[in-house]
Amino acid sequence: MKTLTVLCNIVWFGFVCLVLVTDGLPEGAGYIVLTLLALLTPFLTVAAVLRSGAGAEWLGPHPTTKASGGQGRLEKRSSMSSIIKNLAVVCNLALFGHLCWAFLSQYPHPKEEGYVAFVLLAALTPLLSVVVLIRSGWSDGRGGSQIKSKELQEQGETH
To answer: If DSSP states are collapsed to H, E and C, what string results for 116-136?
Structure first.
């Protein structure tokens, strides 16, 4: 599901860029906020999904504290990951709410060729992202971070 979420967010971002190129910049404060959410939320979501998975070390070094060795590194990574996840969930819910408002405020809808695909992608991407982010948070809470912590401690003792 994580791969599908990343793919949907990339396609959603591309769709939004195409709409901006063809229709121009939005007018009105509500549509400007919607556009900013639609452009920034996919980046935040992809970062949160990738950071929550195993092997997230490639995303960059994490600061460590010398007093506690590797434990500080793990705590800072998990706290930053949880902040990013929570922010991504809030942004996706806000995006979904703004999209519902935009679709309802523009009734009757245009009879364009790609409109149904756009609406489906627009509605499903934030919802799928929220589900994946929440599920990854639950799996971390079931002991995933404790297991990783023990593995890091054991690796530190062997080196």
So the answer is: HHHHHHHHHHHHHHHHHHHHH
- Bond before 61 cis per omega within 30 degrees: no
pTM over 0.90: no
SS3 content of the chain, % helix, strand, coil (to 5): 80, 0, 15
Query: Cα(125)–Cα(120) distance, rounded to whole angstroms?
Result: 8
**Tens digit of each residue's pLDDT, the chain (159 residues):** 889 999 999 999 998 999 899 989 988 898 899 999 999 999 999 999 988 764 444 445 544 444 555 555 555 556 777 888 999 999 999 999 999 998 888 877 778 887 888 888 899 999 999 999 998 866 555 444 444 555 555 555 555
| Nearest C-alpha neighbor of 9 from the set 36, 59, 47 | 47
- Domain range list for the chain: 2-54+75-158
Residue 118 to residues 11, 41, 51, 124, Cα–Cα distance (Å): 10, 16, 28, 10
Which residues 6+ apart lie within 8 Å of 76 measured at CB?
Answer: 62, 63, 64
